[in-house]
Automatic annotation (TrEMBL):
The record marks 77 as: Lowers pKa of active site Tyr. This is 2,5-diketo-D-gluconate reductase A. Keywords: NADP, Oxidoreductase. Belongs to the aldo/keto reductase family. Substrate binds at residue 108. GO terms for molecular function: oxidoreductase activity, acting on the CH-OH group of donors, NAD or NADP as acceptor. Gene3D superfamilies: NADP-dependent oxidoreductase domain.
Length: 275
């Protein structure tokens, strides 16, 4: 696959960029500079969350960017569950971000012990009908969680944002997404919570053959596997490095050599136990 679409139309009709910028673990004081660097570089999808406690700075950077609001695809996520709690959180996020709509709002974790994610999902569906959010999705949902939401509400999430990198490439979940019209968005796409991915012989070999860095190879693999990808960096040189993944392509053999690195082992939280 040499040509890569730069956006995907979600099942609700909104258009999401394939490539974006994550802001986890960037505090409110430094996030405005980081998001400004990302927007200046060309990123147009910005991913934040109530839990990141940086929505004010994200909103400030977007407001100062000199871009039309419609040029930016803004995602936030809600941690709390319950219909009213989600609606209240959404109002508060809009206020902090200084905008009157989100492009995508996600239930951050299913938190099955609380057992309110179906009710929370209804709140997102209603907010979408009212135009407060352009698209509605979830994050860290397993097949079981997705199936239950769709069975009980008749509406499938438009996006599921999950841990996804070569060491944990989630083939079964991606196949389910494809069957149900759910777009896969990859968090932790650089796979750096464990050691060693960039030093893997397969990654090194592709990097050498393509004349690219291991980070670029890993990000390009993720894009070519059909996912929306949102790397984070506060380092200007890396923000630029990570952006340079749209003008080359891995061959089928190169993609397969990286597929083979899947361990099936998560580096981040388990959706069944994160509370
Ligand atoms: N839904 C969820 O539960 C969830 C969970 C985690 C993350 N996310 C979202 O997904 C985004 C991405 O995930 P993530 O931040 O966990 O992980 P990531 O983007 O895979 O990795 C970020 C780490 O990689 C480093 N890095 C970035 N570019 C690099 C490069 N070219 N070479 C070497 N190191 C590089 C960064 O360092 P520096 O910043 O110091 O440069 C940072 O330590 C988050 O920011 C967030 O928006 C969502």
């Amino acid at each position: 696959m040499s040509e890569l679409s730069t956006s995907i139309t979600l099942s609700g009709g909104a258009v999401i960029p394939r490539y974006g910028y994550g802001t986890f673990r960037i505090d409110d004081a430094e996030v405005a500079a980081a998001v400004t660097a990302a927007l200046d570089t060309g990123y147009r999808l910005i991913d934040t969350a109530v839990g990141y406690q940086n929505e004010v700075g994200v909103g400030r950077a977007i407001g100062a960017a000199g871009l039309g609001r419609e040029e930016i695809f803004l995602t936030s996520k809600v941690w709390d569950h319950g219909y009213d709690e989600v609606r209240r959180n959404l109002d508060e996020s809009l206020e902090r971000l200084g905008t009157d709509y989100l492009d995508l709002y996600l239930l951050h974790w299913p938190r099955p012990d609380v057992d309110k994610y179906v009710e929370s999902w209804r709140a997102l569906v209603d907010a979408r009908s009212e135009g407060l959010i352009r698209s509605a999705g979830v994050s860290n949902f397993t097949i079981e969680h997705l199936a239950r939401v769709e069975a009980e509400t008749g509406a499938a999430p438009e996006v599921n944002q999950v841990e996804l990198h070569p060491y944990f490439s989630q083939p079964e979940l991606r196949a389910y997404h494809e069957e149900h019209g759910v777009v896969t968005e990859s968090w932790g796409p650089l796979g750096l919570r464990a050691e060693g991915l960039f030093e893997e012989p397969a990654v090194q070999a592709v990097a050498k053959a393509q004349g690219r860095t291991p980070a670029q190879v890993v990000l390009r693999w993720n894009l070519q596997r059909g996912n929306v990808v949102i790397p984070k960096s506060v380092t200007p040189a890396r923000i630029a490095e990570n952006w340079e993944v749209l003008d080359f392509a891995l061959t089928d053999d190169e993609l397969a050599s990286i597929d083979a690195l899947d361990t099936g082992v998560r580096q981040g939280g388990d959706p069944l136990t994160v509370h």
